[in-house]
């Protein structure tokens, strides 16, 4: 680059001057902010987990590692059916247990004999990973892999040789089946197992054994856009429970050095850390049934649409992503009860948000503070690039939406433009009733990428959102009211 031009460029950057020649008035980012891969991950919101392997045939939750490959025999294997059901439920992706703790590989790995190659299924020519990746792609769903770090089958588990094996498997998966949107690193680690026939207990130090930093840098090389999930990130963290809810408040920031896979401080993971050192948002993992694998005895315990909807509000509705597990049966199908439930859930979700209030129904937007160039009305525009901002010294502000004519309340979506960090600590929502009274209708803590609120169904002529406290000047990219669905 020409020296003079490069000097000019440094000057513009140093003094925050935009190319239009004006000093940019945009708020500065606050604290850690998401990477491009995390922003893409946030946009997914809800995807599926598939737990399927020899463990399914043993009717247990943790395979010991001694099942013969002969036992893996899905007679009606149909990943197209899985994907269609998941799509109907509104899922944006699917993550498969390519290898669970039992060690059996659902793809023809070159690195072990313990795989589908040695199963009678399709004469050893089957590939669950490849078939699901292809079906997901066809249906427009993103694909991710779970590769259990704990391997109860492999003789090498606990020695350095196993780490090479584990990384070799990851390479096969990430290079052979991409693009991959998420790599799931489970925290369950070490204990008794088959270990090549020795049937013993093996304990590892989960802080040092895996050398995750090296593994993670390999994942970055092989799949730069894949988010790495583990108890403590680096890209997405566990939410601290398997019940379907993240904490309230839910900070996407975390003091990362306090956590390691298998070393979870669950309370901290549920809430994140306000002012935390890294952007590591929560993912809520929960199964549609009590277990992660299919058990016929749980056919009458499939979660109802109401339960799934509650889970949606306590995960996606609190700014986390939801990974909902759907375990295929021994035949290799999503069970009819689960599939009917998922389709009904998808319909219920569509209905829930079917009537967004149109911008033209709004008479005005007003704010107690408005940064120049970042008008209150920006919250009606979609996307996180347009937002309402306050001046730097503001920590408390009210945004009021006045309607042309009264409407009935139903749901409300609030979003912060998280590319500039997470700021809002607490807020309240009030409505101006037909009788002319301001009435409190909701309160909340954090917002982050999204907060969904179920509002009382009443007729109102105006709505106001007050940010009561924030770690930096509050910003909102969306305030979207939803009206009750058509009967
Ligand atoms: C846990 C595992 O032990 C379960 O089997 C399941 O895979 C769940 C998602 O994570 O840690």
Description:
With 487 residues, the chain is an alpha/beta fold. It folds into 2 domains: 36-352, Glycosidases (TIM Barrel), CATH 3.20.20; 359-482, Jelly Rolls (Sandwich), CATH 2.60.120.260. The chain has helices spanning 3-14, 36-44, 54-58, 79-88, 128-139, 160-176, 212-222, 266-271, 305-314, 336-352, and strands spanning 46-50, 93-99, 142-147, 180-184, 191-193, 200-202, 227-230, 236-238, 253-254, 278-279, 282-287, 321-325, 362-367, 388-389, 397-408, 411-415, 424-433, 438-444, 451-454, 459-470, 475-476, 478-482. The strands form 6 sheets. An 8-stranded parallel β-barrel has the order 1-2-3-4-7-8-11-12, surrounded by 4 helices. A 5-stranded antiparallel beta sheet has the order 13-15-20-17-18, with no helix packed on it. It has a 3-stranded antiparallel beta sheet with strand order 19-16-22, with no helix packed on it. A hairpin with a 6-residue loop joins strand 5 (191-193) and strand 6 (200-202). The model is unreliable at 9-21 (pLDDT under 50). Beta-L-fucopyranose binds next to loops. Beta-L-fucopyranose is lined by residues 61, 186-188, 285, 292.
| Extended strand count | 22
**Which CATH class of the largest domain is shown?**
Alpha Beta
How many strands, which pairing sense, and closed or not: the largest β-sheet?
Answer: 8 strands, parallel, barrel
Give the end-to-end Cα distance, rounded to a whole number of Å.
64 Å
Query: Judging from the principal axes of the Cα atoms, what is the shape?
Result: globular
**Contiguous uncertain segments of 5+ residues:** 9-21
Reading side by side through the largest sheet, how are the strands ordered?
Answer: 1-2-3-4-7-8-11-12
The CATH topology label of the largest domain is TIM Barrel
The helix tally amounts to 10
Share of helix, binned: 10-25%
CA radius of gyration is: 25 Å
Mean pLDDT: 94
Indicate the CATH architecture of the largest domain: Alpha-Beta Barrel
**Number of discrete domains:** 2
